[in-house]
Known about the structure:
By secondary structure, the protein is mainly beta. It has 1 helix and 12 strands.
Amino acid sequence: MALTEGGPGQERWREQGSTPPHESIISVLPSQGTLLPYEKRKLELTFAPRFVSSDSGWSHFQATPTRRDYTLYLRFLAVDTNRESTASGGDLEVAVCATALPVDVQLEPSPPLQFGATPTMSPITQHVKVHNKSDTLPLYFTTHRVPHYTCHPPSGHIPPSHTLSLSLTFTPKQLGPLNARLLIDILTSDSRSE
C-alpha cells in the first residue's frame, strides 16, 4: 500500500513523525487467504481517516479539519505454497480513491457542566445541545453509562446541519463530591444495528 501526495495536510503528517496514515487509514478483510482457480471472494475495505492535530479533547481543538482526498494503492501478491512471491506476474494492484469529510460537532453549553450541591436521590437535569455543523455527514451517537448520571436519549441520529438536545440528569446516590466524565461516541454511520 502506498499513499500519494494528493490532499492538503498529508505532508504535515509526515513531518510530525507519526505513523504514516496509510498504515491505519484503510483495512481489508480478509487480509489473507487462498483462492482456488476461478474462485471469487468479496473483500471488505474499511476507510477510517484520522485527524491527528489535537493533543487531547475539546480544550486543545484548534480548528475544524478540512476535506481530504486520498488515493491509495492496494497490492495483492500471488504467493506459492512455500510463501514465496511468484514471478508469474500474478500480482494485482488496485487503486482506491476516497474522500475524508470532517466531523464537526459543537456542544452548547461547553463542558464542564456544573450541577452544584444536590441532595442525595434528588434528580437535577441540565440540557446540552449537540450541533452537527457538517453540511454533508449525518451523525450517530451513543453515550456511555456513568454512575449517578443518565442521558436521554442515550443514542440517536443528528442529520447534517441540525441540532439535538440531550437531557443530562444527575441523581447522587451517595454523599460527597462526584466528578465524572460522560463520554459520547460520535459516529458517521449507524453501527448500533451491526
